[in-house]
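anyone else get weird line breaks when pasting these?? whatever heres mine. first is seq + tokens for prot A
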Amino acid sequence: MENAPAQHILFQADPNMTQQFRQVREHIHQQIKGCLHRTIRVQTVNGCTYEGVLMNVEGGMLFLSVPAAPSMSRAYNPYYNNVILPLVLFELLVIVLLM
């Protein structure tokens, strides 16, 4: 029987940090669960800003419907004019409900 190759852990989350991530995720879910199908703006930690319709929040992801790039758009079928952008909740700095 061969020995399994040695593993080198590159990153392991601190258990306290893991619990904090769960609490943050739950807090975000509670704050935005009533905003489904409404227009929001989000800003990521990388400085990117997106506006679109909040389609779903599940697990650690927020799903935002945004206009497709002109090269992706199909004018003959309006259902193809939007794309769903999945965003990781932990990379979001700001979520704003637009009236």
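and prot B, same format (seq, then tokens)
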Amino acid sequence: MTDRHTGPIVLVARMKARPGKEQELRDALPALVAATRQEDGCLTYVPHQGLDDPGLLVMHEVWQSEEHLRAHSASAHLRAFAERAAELTVNGIEIERLAEIEL
């Protein structure tokens, strides 16, 4: 993505729970979601669970700007969750950064 992008930043964060750790991973979400939704620049922060694979958790995020996303990335609650996710997931948190296509 180029530096010229000035619109909202969309993230899709995917996590695959280790077998037997699905509920522990889900239990870690409410604190993360509540704290993140209070952050300046957070437009959307919604967790989803796979219908065909309940061990798959996906977070859909929309941030007002790159600066807001950087602040979120440095937040204590996200860092704490990421440490926990490293123990509970197969490959940690996989993040895809997106921008809306203006048609």
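btw re prot B: The mean pLDDT is 94. The CA atoms of residues 23 and 43 lie 27 Å apart.
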